[in-house]
Write a structure and sequence with these properties.
Elements (H helix, E strand, L loop, with lengths): L2 H7 L17 H16 L5 H10 L5 H29 L8 H17 L6 H12 L3 H10 L9 H18 L5
Helix pairs in contact: 1-4, 2-3, 2-4, 3-4, 4-5, 7-8
């Protein structure tokens, strides 16, 4: 069922021809898909504009075209969110130990947003960003110094996150009101 949509996204089938590629035995499914997309969007005021766009551009009943419009819309939205996440990631900082848990959580969330769009940053750059952001926090100097002692291959993003999570756990154990 989805092959034609993939072909259209790859530029091998014109958007207008999607409705002509639906096999007869799949037309009922295609109509249900179209109806489900449009009706679900009409229930949410923020999605009304997109529902109107689907109704204006897609041939009535063509679920493939409706999904194609959604993919294009949210693909652009995901790319925009990834760019914003990248900017926020570059500006993310840590001023004191009590903010460590929030810093790690936000860092991981921003990386996840970027990955949704297929964007990645090299492991070494992620490690450097984290180490630089944490340098001003006295309680992290020793754990980060220990982290930087092994070989470069062992200084991974996952390893530095583990160091920070362990440091946070120790901090909460020593200062129960911190968490």
């Amino acid at each position: 069922y989805w092959n034609a949509l993939r072909e259209q996204q790859a530029g091998r089938i014109p958007f207008a021809d999607l409705s002509d590629t639906v096999a007869e035995e799949q037309k009922a499914l295609d109509l249900k898909l179209y109806s489900a997309v449009v009706l679900s969007m009409k229930k949410h005021s923020k999605a009304m504009t997109l529902a109107a766009k689907i109704q204006a551009r897609a041939r009535f009943g063509c679920g493939w075209q409706a999904v194609g419009i959604l993919d294009k819309h949210f693909g652009h939205e995901i790319a925009k969110l990834a760019r914003q996440a990248h900017g926020k990631l570059m500006a993310l900082s840590l001023k004191h130990m009590n903010g460590l848990d929030d810093y790690v959580t936000e860092f991981q969330r921003l990386i996840s947003v970027m990955k949704e769009n297929g964007d990645t940053l090299p492991d070494g750059l992620l490690v450097e960003m984290i180490v630089k952001a944490c340098q001003g926090v006295e309680q992290l100097k020793a754990p980060l110094a220990d982290f930087q002692n092994p070989t470069l291959e062992e200084q991974t993003y996952d390893a530095v996150i583990e160091v920070l999570e362990n440091a946070w756990t120790m901090h909460v154990l020593l200062h129960p009101n911190a968490g």
